[in-house]
Amino acid sequence: MASLSSLLLLSSYSQTKTKSSISSNKRHVVVNYVSCKAASNNGEDSVSKFDRREVLFGLGGLYGVVTATSSVLAAPLTPDIFNCHMAKTPGGIKDCCPPQIGKIIHFVPPKIQQPYVRRPAAHLMNQTQIEELESGIKKLKQLDEGDPHSFLHQAKIHCAYCDYVYNQLGSITETRFGVHSNALFFPFHRAYLYFFERILRHYIGNPNFAIPFWNWDSPPGMYMPEFYNRPSSSLYDHLRDPRHDPHKLIYLNYNGKTEDHSFDVVDCNLRWMNDRMQVQSPRSFLGRVLKAGETPNPTDMGTIEQSPHNNIHDWLGTKTPHFEDMGSFYSAALDPLFYAHHANIDRLWNIWKTLDGNPKDHIDPDWLNSSFVFYDENKNAVNIKVSDCLDTEKLGYVYQEVPLPWLHMNKIPTPNPWIRTEESEPPIVNFPQILNSDITTMVDRPEEDRSGEEVDEVLVLEDVEYDPTTRVHFDVLVNVVDKAQDRCAAFLEFVGSFKNIPHGLHHHDKTSLRFVITEVIQGLGLERDKNLAVKIEPMVGGEGVTVGGIKIQLEPLR
């Protein structure tokens, strides 16, 4: 069985040497490709000019060109798999680089034979399905660690893409490539699970095998699936919070602190799911599209990634210093439950596109042409683009249809709303402020928009500083001035949370966080108010957080 400590081991694949010096914490992956010769002006072959450019085209399309003024044209994002760095994780320096990569091939959609493979809800799986899953995971855990199909290597993929071991291909500033906190989150994990599932089928010997989804958005699935918690099973992970066994109801906005709640958790979960799903813009749901040279930023997360995705990772992580396995991104995929968790995330992406209002994916070509590299079931290195990942039927699978009890469960006002009076208004707070206790202040709203364009009203926390290697959770509320208490995230006054899952060191020192409050203002009847009471409640790690300011602004809806 792959252990956490085994991530420290160096893989035995060869390293290439280049003319430039190689730092001790960087891995150079061997890649074979066909060179493209071209005649230079003097008639000589210019192989070296075009070898790398061919790979740039092959991996992600046309890349930005750096001009004399160092400006960079818009370009799709692709990891530079030639140069793999050691991962700087909360748990120390880890080797998350892949084994030797041979020829890279382009993704070809599978030949579809209907009916589609159907991924089942974990709590509805039959014994045969469970045994096949256990058998497949067991076989992957028995493979040599250097095998790209091994369970350890599959876990390293998440570490590599989430703890910044690759630069963006074509970057001259060594800008790191990451798939969290931006619009690559959904397509990366879809592709990751697609290849993982095909590898499992290869070892199980069943072409119709499908990984399950943990149906935590519905009451029967709001518990850890029982068969993942048997110590004798290959699906068991001893690095899970023992308090959160299959008998413990999960709270989807778990704050890392409160275990027993004063409110109806199931009702709150369903209303919170509705809030997370009923957003129209791809920017709000999928996250913001990054451009070449930009790095992931927490303000660019979509609703589902913010919560419940991050919160469920935190709920499963142990009380070890870095909350392994699921509570830290570098180790998360060492827990077999990771794949069921992300299968449900993937399922929710499908569902979002069927909701009222006909929400659609981003159409930005830079997003569509961004790409990743995975090993397939035949140990081929495959380059797959975001545009290949938009339709699960074209990938050969669908999800078992189960009820959506959250679909019409809107947020509700708190039972004891704040009655605003001049005397009860909180004072204006001068920023920056350390978040070692509640911060409550009045914030001015912007002037009414008269452009005729559809806009959202957005609450922005400016210049938020925190250590990304630490666990952090704080809640943000409007029209609330009382002391912190156990609050349901489905109250209208609750506009959102910030949850940091410990990960590598390559975030901005400062970030801004945005929370759409248009429907909150309408639901609370605050449209005529010129300012709002805003409250930030730290739950975990607030002493290490500094907030630079708070403002409310208008943003175009699309």
TrEMBL record:
<dbReference type="InterPro" id="IPR002227">
    <property type="entry name" value="Tyrosinase_Cu-bd"/>
</dbReference>
<protein>
    <recommendedName>
        <fullName>Tyrosinase copper-binding domain-containing protein</fullName>
    </recommendedName>
</protein>
<keyword id="KW-1015">Disulfide bond</keyword>
<dbReference type="GO" id="GO:0046872">
    <property type="term" value="F:metal ion binding"/>
</dbReference>
<dbReference type="Pfam" id="PF12142">
    <property type="entry name" value="PPO1_DWL"/>
</dbReference>
<dbReference type="Pfam" id="PF00264">
    <property type="entry name" value="Tyrosinase"/>
</dbReference>
<dbReference type="InterPro" id="IPR008922">
    <property type="entry name" value="Di-copper_centre_dom_sf"/>
</dbReference>
<dbReference type="GO" id="GO:0004097">
    <property type="term" value="F:catechol oxidase activity"/>
</dbReference>
<dbReference type="InterPro" id="IPR022739">
    <property type="entry name" value="Polyphenol_oxidase_cen"/>
</dbReference>
<keyword id="KW-0186">Copper</keyword>
<dbReference type="InterPro" id="IPR022740">
    <property type="entry name" value="Polyphenol_oxidase_C"/>
</dbReference>
<keyword id="KW-0883">Thioether bond</keyword>
<dbReference type="InterPro" id="IPR050316">
    <property type="entry name" value="Tyrosinase/Hemocyanin"/>
</dbReference>
<feature type="domain" description="Tyrosinase copper-binding">
    <location>
        <begin position="335"/>
        <end position="346"/>
    </location>
</feature>
<keyword id="KW-0479">Metal-binding</keyword>
<comment type="similarity">
    <text>Belongs to the tyrosinase family.</text>
</comment>
<feature type="domain" description="Tyrosinase copper-binding">
    <location>
        <begin position="180"/>
        <end position="197"/>
    </location>
</feature>
<dbReference type="Pfam" id="PF12143">
    <property type="entry name" value="PPO1_KFDV"/>
</dbReference>
<keyword id="KW-0560">Oxidoreductase</keyword>
